[in-house]
Design goal:
By secondary structure, the chain is of the alpha+beta class. The protein has a single domain, classed as Fe-S cluster assembly (FSCA) (GMP Synthetase, Chain A, domain 3). Helices cover 28% and strands 17% of the residues. It has four helices and three strands. The protein has a three-stranded mixed beta sheet with strand order 1-2-3. Helix 3 links the parallel strand 2 and strand 3. The longest helix is centred in the middle third of the chain and has 13 residues. It is globular and about 40 Å long.
C-alpha cells in the first residue's frame, strides 16, 4: 500500500528554495539551476542539487540555508541534501532572467574551478 501523500508539495518546496541565494552570486539556487530534483516521502524531503563548483567554499552555508528554508514548511520533518556533480553546473543552466549575468560572475566561477 502506498504511503499517504505528504502535506508539503514540491511546488512549495521549490518556492522556499527560491529564498536561498548563492552568497557569491546573489541569485537564488533555483534560478541558478542548482536544484536538479525534489522528492518528498512522509515529510522527509530530499533536495538533489549541485554547486557552481565541486570545491565551493560556501557549500556548508548554502546547505544550512537550504535546510532552514525547507524545514520551515509545515509538514516537513527532515531535510536531506543529495549533492551531485553529474551533470556539472554551467551558466547555461540558469533561468532566462539571469542570462546576461552569464558573461560576468558565473563565467568567472567556472574558470576558477
Amino acid at each position: 500500500m502506498a504511503p499517504p501523500p505528504s502535506p508539503v508539495s514540491v511546488v512549495k518546496i521549490r518556492a522556499a528554495l527560491r529564498t536561498v541565494a548563492d552568497p557569491e552570486l546573489g541569485i537564488d539556487i533555483v534560478s541558478l539551476g542548482l536544484v536538479y530534483g525534489i522528492t518528498v516521502l512522509r515529510g522527509s524531503v530530499t533536495v538533489r542539487m549541485t554547486l557552481t563548483t565541486p570545491a565551493c567554499p560556501l557549500a556548508p552555508v548554502i546547505a544550512e540555508n537550504v535546510r532552514r528554508a525547507v524545514v520551515s514548511l509545515k509538514g516537513v520533518t527532515a531535510v536531506v541534501i543529495d549533492y551531485t556533480f553529474d551533470p556539472p553546473w554551467n551558466p547555461s543552466m540558469m533561468q532566462v532572467p539571469h542570462q546576461p549575468m552569464k558573461r560576468t560572475k558565473a563565467r568567472r566561477m567556472t574558470r576558477t574551478s
